């Protein structure tokens, strides 16, 4: 596949991801200007630039096989979901990372229906608990994330009282876990 075809495919997949993420979880914050996708050795993450510019950084390994490489779509869908509620700094809570991980799983299941790649990657990562809590939340109320974002657009700043007020079917200890800062390991 030629470079131009790969870039076109990547652009189309990104547009599909952002549209689906907004449909499921609400519109992205419009004050941030998305400038593109980068590949770096230390990816994946969101890169914040001056003047509210933002990019997605993926790991270098993802740049080698655009067509049938689950890790590319896993990373891109996860980071795309973070574009919905950027903060300008690395301060995600468990809820924030859980939503992005949940989205990665459902997007990969759609792209690679016979693959267990996403859930296998999640189960062996530090993201599994965050994913499990968000999955429970969404299974209880499919619009839970939209409801949370309505009262707290910055998902990483939602409070325990705000979550409790929504009656989302979670135990208090689960709500307390969701608002903790995520520990990257």
Description:
Strands 1-3-2 form a 3-stranded mixed sheet, with helices on one face. The model has no long low-confidence stretch (mean pLDDT 92). The protein has helices at residues 3-25, 70-82, 94-111, 117-123, 128-140, 144-151, 160-165, 172-179, and strands at 33-40, 45-49, 53-59. Helix 3 runs antiparallel to helix 4 (117-123). With 185 residues, the chain is mostly helical. Helices cover 52% and strands 11% of the residues. A hairpin with a 3-residue loop joins strand 2 and strand 3. It has one domain (3-179).
Mean pLDDT: 92
Could you list the spans in which at least 5 consecutive residues all have pLDDT below 50?
none
Helix fraction, binned, reads 40-55%
The SS-based structural class is mainly alpha
SSE topology string = HEEEHHHHHHH
Order of strands across the main sheet: 1-3-2
Largest sheet: 3 strands, mixed
Task: Report, as a whole number of angstroms, the end-to-end distance.
Answer: 35 Å
Give the count of structural domains.
1
The strand count comes to 3
The amount of beta strand, in percent, is 5-15%
Essential attributes:
185 residues; mainly alpha; 8 helices; globular
Question: Could you outline the blueprint of secondary structure elements for this entry?
Answer:
Elements: H1 3-25, E1 33-40, E2 45-49, E3 53-59, H2 70-82, H3 94-111, H4 117-123, H5 128-140, H6 144-151, H7 160-165, H8 172-179
Parallel strand pairs: 1-3
Antiparallel strand pairs: 2-3
Helix pairs in contact: 1-2, 2-3, 3-4, 3-5
């Amino acid at each position: 596949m030629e470079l131009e075809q790969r870039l076109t495919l990547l652009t189309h997949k990104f547009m599909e991801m952002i549209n689906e993420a907004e449909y499921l979880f609400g519109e992205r914050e419009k004050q941030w200007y998305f400038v593109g996708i980068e590949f770096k050795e230390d990816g994946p993450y969101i890169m914040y630039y001056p003047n509210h510019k933002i990019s997605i950084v993926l790991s270098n390994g993802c740049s080698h096989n655009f067509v049938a490489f689950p890790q590319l779509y896993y990373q891109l869908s996860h980071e795309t979901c973070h574009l919905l509620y950027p903060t300008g700094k690395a301060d995600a809570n468990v809820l924030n990372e859980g939503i992005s991980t949940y989205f990665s799983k459902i997007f990969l299941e759609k792209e690679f229906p016979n693959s267990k790649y996403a859930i296998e990657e999640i189960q062996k990562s530090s993201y599994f608990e965050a994913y499990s809590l968000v999955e429970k939340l969404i299974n209880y109320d499919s619009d839970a994330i939209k409801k949370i974002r309505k009262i707290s657009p910055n998902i990483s700043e939602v409070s325990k009282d705000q979550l409790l007020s929504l009656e989302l079917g979670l135990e208090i200890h689960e709500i307390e876990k969701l608002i903790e800062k995520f520990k990257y390991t």
